[in-house]
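Q: I'm a student working through a structural biology exercise. My instructor gave each of us a protein and asked us to get a predicted structure, then write a short paragraph describing it. Mine is DUF1240 domain-containing protein. I'm not confident about reading structure output yet, so if you can add a plain explanation after the tokens, that would really help. Here is the sequence I was given:
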Amino acid sequence: MASFLPFWFYFLIATFQFLLNFSFKLSMKLTMKSGILSCLFMALGVIPFNYFVESTLEDKGYVFCNWYTAPSVIAPDVWLKNDELCLQDGSVIISDIYDWFEMHNEKGIEPTLNTLKVFIQKTRAEQSR
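A: Happy to help. First, here is the predicted structure for DUF1240 domain-containing protein. I'll explain a few features afterward.
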């Protein structure tokens, strides 16, 4: 986001110059250059940044959980400290699982496999009614 700041700055200046009937060609040129450079920087920076984040999470002991990651491209990836908590049965109640993990995180309680299994069974039974 910080790489887009020059773009918006130049765009704002060009807009004021246009509204006040000043020549805005230079500001517009700088706007386009900074916008293109920002897009290139972001496109080239995504892959190394993702690699850095994933390797940092793996180094800290987290495991990627495919079952709780939604199929949407913009959905966040789910990383768990305990890989036993990544259960296929929970994939149909992803939002409830998120809330369950968030509740345990706020309380500072380490979730256990048995409590997760009970929660999944109970939630799926309630949804099938």
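A: Here are two points you could use in your paragraph. The first strand starts at residue 63 and ends at 64. The longest helix spans residues 25-59. It's a good idea to check both against the output above yourself.
Q: Great, thank you!
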